[in-house]
Fold this protein.
Amino acid sequence: MSAARDNFSGNHFVAHAILAFFSVLALAPIAIIVMNAFKSRDAIFGAPLEPPTTGTFDLIGFRTVFANGNFDAYFMNSFSVTLVALGGTILFGSMAAFALSEYKFKLNSLTALFFTMGIMVPIRLGTPGILELMVASGLVNTRTALVLVYIAQGLPMAIFILAEYMRTVSDDLKNAGRVDGLSEYVIFFWLVLPLLRPAMVSVAVFTMIPMWNDLWFPLILAPGEDTKTLTLGAQAFIGQDVTDWNSVLAALTLSILPVLALYLVFSKGLIRGITSGAIK
């Protein structure tokens, strides 16, 4: 009994050590960016791994971003595009997941496989076709182009997670609604959708981060000054010969805040969604 307990404690320690190692590996670049955003330019290059001190503390990067970077417009573009795309992804993803998990039709398995393949195939491979379609539709340099692309990008993962979770919803609840004469739309929106909140939080976190941090599609589809996102706007401080690293690091630090806020608000729901079978 004692040997089994020691073996369990040993395995427990190894698992935590591995998790701690990968946590440090993932968080170290973020910590370096945030630390150096509050330092002078000389301190950034002189001691990049040291936290700011009273002698190296400098907010010149943040002052430059707010004064010259058109930061407010870039932030609102990123916020509006991400919010609308996230809402569309969850709405259309949950409707498709409901159809795939609830109804048995001839191409059910093939349709589910088609959406699953969308997780494995990067949407960037279709960039030439997407650009040609947006040019033909007159949507280049509009936020609508980014919203449509991000919804298409997020749908496979959303459908996969929500369909798995939706299969755990009791059939008795849905059948009781049908016996009471409720339409399929009412059953979906009023009975099933409220039960999907943990899974929807998981979808929101997993799909928001690639949308918010994306540089590829804003650069290709919406490079105009009025439609620039925050990530693309930060590139304005990177010059061919000289780069304003204080401003670049300050802009990146500010862009982290919404993602951090999302995690802090929905962290409990995210963990509940993962542990209750949203991801299998």
